[in-house]
Structure formats: structure tokens, C-alpha cells
Amino acid sequence: MPVDVNRAATDVQWKAIQENDTSFDTTFFYAVKTTKIFCKPSCPSRDPKRENVEIFFYIEDAQRHNYRACKRCKPKEEK
Ligand SMILES: [Zn+2]
Predict the structure, then answer these.
(1) How far is the CA of 40 from the centre of ligand 1 (A)?
(2) What is the pLDDT at residue 23?
(3) Which of 15, 20, 48, 62 is disulfide-compatible with 56, CB 3.0–4.6 A?
(4) Looking at residue 24, what is its pLDDT?
(5) Does residue 5 fall inside a structural domain?
(6) What does 37-59 look like in DSSP terms, one character per residue?
């Protein structure tokens, strides 16, 4: 069994999400458990609840956890 990784957002990551900070766009993605969507930190969509957020560093990793790329910020188009 895989180790249960702690994917909770750090304070820095959470702040970047809230402020839609584009400078974090290449460093991580956030996924929302309730919508099964993952986004770039700069996504203009409404902020989720912090406890529903999971942090991923790779698109493939988020997809493996059954998250879909957000149609608004299109994280898949970012390299
Ligand atoms: Zn998005």
C-alpha cells in the first residue's frame, strides 16, 4: 500500500491559491476533493475550502487520483 501522503496545503501554498499568484503556477497544482478538479494556483475560480484542497506537484499525479484538469485555467497546457 502506498504511504498516506499529507497533501494539505501549506500556509504559503494556501496564500498563493487565495491570491491567484501566477508566480506559483509552475511549482504546484491544487485539487479540490469536492469537485474532483485540479487547478493552477492562479485560477480565477472561487476559492475552495482549505480542508478540501490537495496539493500535487505533477499533473500525472493528480490525474492518477482521478482529478480532471480545470477547463478555466487549463493546467494541462502548462509545461
Ligand atoms: Zn482552474
Answers:
(1) 6
(2) 97
(3) 62
(4) 97
(5) no
(6) EEE-TT--SPP--GGGEEEES-H
Q: Do the domain assignments include residue 1? A: no
Range of the domain at 40: 11-77
In the chain, the amino acid numbered 10 is: T
State the Cα–Cα distance between residues 56 and 16, nearest whole angstrom: 14
43 among known catalytic residues: no
Has residue 2 got a pLDDT over 60? no
Distance (angstroms) between ligand 1 centre and the Cα of 13 equals: 15
Tens digit of each residue's pLDDT (9 = 90 or more) over 11-53 = 999 999 999 999 999 899 999 999 999 999 999 998 999 999 9
CA 1 / ligand 1 centre spacing (Å): 30
